[in-house]
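EI: anyone free to look at a 717-residue chain?
SC: sure, send it
EI:
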Amino acid sequence: MTNIKNLIAKELNLTSAQVAAVIDLVDQGNTIPFIARYRKEATGGMDDATLRDFDERLAYLRNLEARKAEVLHSIDEQGKLTPELQAKIEAATIMQRVEDLYKPYKKKRATRASKAREAGLEPLALLILAQGRSDKDPLALAAGLVNVPAGYDTAEAALRGAQDIVAEIIADDAEHTACLRAFTKRSSAVGVEAVDADEKTVYETYYDFSESLAKIPNHRILAINRGEKEKKLKVKVQVDANAAVAQLENRVLRSPSPFTSVLKEAVADSYKRLIAPSLDREMRAELTERAETDAIRVFAKNTENLLQQRPVRGARVIALDPGYRTGCKVAVLDEYGKLLDYTTVYPTPPRSDIEGTQHKLAEYIKRHRANVIVIGNGTGSRETEEVVADLIAKTDAPLHYTIVNEAGASVYSASKLASEEYPDLDVTTRGAMSLGRRLQDPLAELVKIPPQAIGVGQYQHDLNQTALAHALAGVVESVVNRVGVDLNTASASLLGYVSGISAAVAKNIVAYREEHGAFTNRRQLKKVAKLGDKAFLNCAGFLRIAGGDNPLDATSVHPESYAAAKAVLKRASVKPEALAHGGISDIAQRVGDVSALAAELSVGLPTLRDIIAELEKPGRDPRDDAPEVVFSKGVRDFDDLAPGMELTGTVRNVVDFGAFVDVGIKQDGLVHVSKLSDRFVKHPSEVVAVGDTVTVWVAGIDKERGKISLSMVKGKV
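SC: here you go
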């Protein structure tokens, strides 16, 4: 069988010791965030992303070995397992190879070949395949195998039956399949045509389209798949069938024999009836998997960047969820996200009560000391923004406004979670609150929304939802644990993504907090129902307690390292209480030789360095390195735009063909990949990320279609 440890070590360029250590840690039930952060000595400093790749590869290879065992057992039970076949199966490194080798031994539904075998035609089929000498021609041999009850009532029918068996044997051969698979991959194309060439659809680009399998971009595959699913397009793999048959003939045919002509017919039938359709399905599935894998990767990266956006601390927010007929919902939040007030105003048609809206907003600004107004970018956003901008221009208060993406707000506000959190509020008020909190703490709010609904992907609803959910859950978990969570304020939604904490335990933590009051130390976590020693080990370092019994509880130092941290503080002549005042910036200089101290304390060097870094800046939020939120845009409508205009915007989404940038109006503008830089860019993610603040120039305006073309290279329009 495959040596999993050696294979992973080679593929990921790791040492055998690293691989063995990680496998051991995973098998012990440790989470990826915990291993990445607190087991650096064992892993050699492997980061979160590498560990997730490792974990996925380990799971795949273990499933592969389990499948090999099943296949070997099945073939052995049939009495057909040979040493050569066993060696081939055991040497397989991909699931596809195992299934190819198993194909001849799988139980099949009734086929033309199985019917012919039951009629006693297999001996003739084997003679044809053997291509030996014979005193009789194939038809004469077939005459002796006529079986009227079975439906082979003539020599010609019996010969065709034998050819059916030959065709299936050829199609079941793993080596033939591998050869034709490689041929199809390198020489074929995706062919697309319209179901109705006269119908106007968004898929007209693909009405007469062909592109190489090897070169077709992933976003194009997903677009074609969607068009096919909507029954607007017909898709097939275009392959040179004659060349493929010739390839197969070269593999099957040997020296001329009396069976050559009938064997050639069987070869052609094998390819066209059995192999080609199977490879067509396989190539389409492989293209889709490739495209979906890439789309999930891009979506995951976008989600990661979105969740890592900088919080706007100290913002007392008036959040506006615009609308027309039903008005604009208003929610006022204090700097901690607590709801202070809410109402509905009508600044938009048909009522257009601008004066009343501004009066109510001015009242809230004064009463609640609001300093930021947040406006959702949905229906009625532009008109609402004009009213807000006019109000700010008329006031002396230190007030700003910004537009936030509404994607997913309606999903959250109507969810069971939202109704549990705010049972006394209606759906629209919850939606407005969500918009305001997205500005205050994007991570804490966005974890309440299914990642598929937050609007940073491409074709996300067409993707494998299980794979997408798995990837996005991993991303959210990584970001939450990288940032850390305040144990006394975090919602159950946020706690549920902390290393080692399940959704049920997260609810138990909140319930314990509500019953017993705020946690004062991390040890109290062990009193929470269903939070055992293993869960505590995995979660404790990622949960923060500000102002508790132990200043180290407010840091990312794990409780298992408290003794080492206290020894470092003692060496530096600093009391733990100093951590509450912003840390000790010169602690590294105070402790001197870190390597010597690590040896003295019997602590791993990476762990000690992490402890010192944390004591320098306890509880530091990595999101503070993200770009600041852009307030108050200078444009609000298509009519404000002009070709060549320079604007500042925020990247909202990154896809294969470019980046969508919010420049202050309802519709985001597209910077095509060719206009992201003055150098060649393979993928937009090389240049921009969700949340980036960028300078763009208007390259084109299509008011009729509501599209804006932008450029990040001045003059490149």
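EI: The chain has a mean pLDDT of 91.
SC: 👍
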